[in-house]
Known about the structure:
Helices cover 24% and strands 42% of the residues. By secondary structure, it is α+β, with helices and mostly antiparallel strands. It has a single domain (10-102), classed as Aminopeptidase. A five-stranded mixed sheet has the order 1-2-3-5-4, covered by helices on one side. The protein is globular. Bound molecules: coenzyme A. Coenzyme A binds at residues 25-27, 32-38, 61, 65-68, 70-71.
Amino acid sequence: MTRIDGPVVxxxxxxxRDGEAEVGYWFGRPHWNQGYATEALRAxxxxxxxxxxxxxxxxxxxxxxxxxxxxLKKCGFTPxxxxxxxxxxxxGMRRFQMFLLGR
Length: 103
Ligand SMILES: CC(C)(COP(=O)(O)OP(=O)(O)OC[C@H]1O[C@@H](n2cnc3c(N)ncnc32)[C@H](O)[C@@H]1OP(=O)(O)O)[C@@H](O)C(=O)NCCC(=O)NCCS
């Protein structure tokens, strides 16, 4: 069970499917631009690589999501091409910038 000591400011998760580990995250708007995502993602990636030992972790970002791209680059991710994804619930085809971080 997870113990929470203070207010929740955001969340990070790892999805493992088809031999690939993909990280996703959000932080609450009142908490943006204070370094929380960068600090939390670094700690999360350390933990994920140590415990689950994936060869690499991927992330997908809308190309105009500059804040998220900044966070990923500060955590060591590098661009890994563009991927068209058919979003669920009729979201349609959307283009994502892919990022990759090796162990
Ligand atoms: C993306 C997100 C997680 C960033 O969280 P955060 O806690 O604000 O991130 P940090 O404070 O660690 O870092 C943000 C960086 O982006 C920069 N930034 C923020 N908005 C920016 C903008 N519009 N243009 C350029 N840079 C921007 C900040 O200056 C900061 O960089 P710096 O530390 O070098 O100054 C947060 O905005 C969010 O949850 N967004 C909605 C959900 C989302 O997009 N999730 C990611 C999906 S891939």
